[in-house]
Amino acid sequence: MILRRRTIVGTACLAAAVTLLAVGCGSSGSGGGTNAAGGGSSRTVTIGVLTDVTGPAASGNKTFVDGVKAGTFYASRNGYKIKYVVADTATNPTTALAAAQKLVTQDHVLAVLAESSILFTTTNYLTAHNVPVIGVSQDGPEWSTAKNMFSVAGPLQQTKVSTTIGELLKLVGVTNLASLGYGVSPISSESAASGALSAQVAGIKVGYLNAKFPFGSTDVGPEVLAMKNAGINGLWASVDPNTGFALISGLRDQGVDLKGVLLPTGYGGDILQAGQGALQDAQGVYFTLGYEPVEMQTAATKQLQADFASAHITLAPTYASYTGYVSTGLLVRALKDAGPGVTQASLIKALSNVHDWDAMGLFGGHKADINDRVNIVNGADNCWWLTKLEGDKFTLVPGGDPVCGKLVPGKTVAPAS
């Protein structure tokens, strides 16, 4: 795989300490012995968890660890004891690579579960060492090109366009959209551009588009004024919660009448723990989710909540913790398919044969072919669920449970470079 990404420049990133949190954790499931990566017949496996525990991207990704922890209880019920080592990227390219190298050379993990805005700085190394990687494709195109990497929602093709975002924006009454993404993050940048094009397909004017915003910044004054001058009444912000909440606060301070704000992160505990200021700013904001929200109280969401309770996690589920939980579930699916004496090669082979992933029921009857590296833009069947923050509660949005779009033929955006 050819890595075609830039080094993140920013005081917060470059000053971040090299923090490697070695946490030996696991479920109470049966089995013992050596890591299955060594070829033993044990049902105990050791994995790495690579995520942004600290740094600018932590606001959207750090709770990934909670999801993995809860997922170990799912694994236990299925006969696997999962031990995991947490490696913090600190949202810093040098730190991220060192973290990945430690997982491989010192911790000897069987696989890596990952959610990081800068994962693309580590993937050449992980691919070269044939390490299976399970997580979510929110950073770069390596999820589509590297055959050892498997996204729980499928390898998202953000240069392509589906009708999903446009239909969601139309549902909440947006007529003039502002779309913003991070320039340094390929997926974020491309998502901002493809979201704007999806809105245009739905008949919505795009008054403002910025796919090159500085990574993790909350200095949004010029952008807010430009959006106001463009007459926007809706916002699609493919960014971390800290940036998204700053945009909303700034727009409201400028008296912009926002008919609909859609954020892909910030759902659940992310906003509820962000303080009263953020909670107030986010009133009436819509949050997208690629899984059934816990507010639906389906069998799958009740099981997720039960596993979170077993893990003593009191924070409400977030986008990242959902993904950590589902990533652990996909690992268990592959371990079962690989059979006894699993190796990294046999685990990759098992993952390569998964074409009907249902996220332990959290896709609500929909399925994702995690090996379809061409057609998936917005997750399983291009479906997103929509919730709205009202007070300190998330409510379900009529008609948004879920919205399932289709690929728009002939519509693409330029790859981020």
Describe the model:
- The chain is 34% helix and 19% strand.
- It is an alpha/beta fold and 417 residues long.
- It has 2 domains: 11-156 and 298-361, Response regulator (Rossmann fold, 3-Layer(aba) Sandwich), CATH 3.40.50; 160-294 and 377-412, Response regulator (Rossmann fold, 3-Layer(aba) Sandwich), CATH 3.40.50.
- Strands 7, 8, 9, 10, 11, 12, 13 and 14 form an 8-stranded mixed beta sheet that branches. Strands 2-1-3-4-5 form a 5-stranded parallel beta sheet.
- Helix 3 runs parallel beside helix 14 (319-338) and helix 14 packs across helix 15 (344-352).
- The longest helix is centred in the C-terminal third of the chain and has 20 residues, at 319-338.
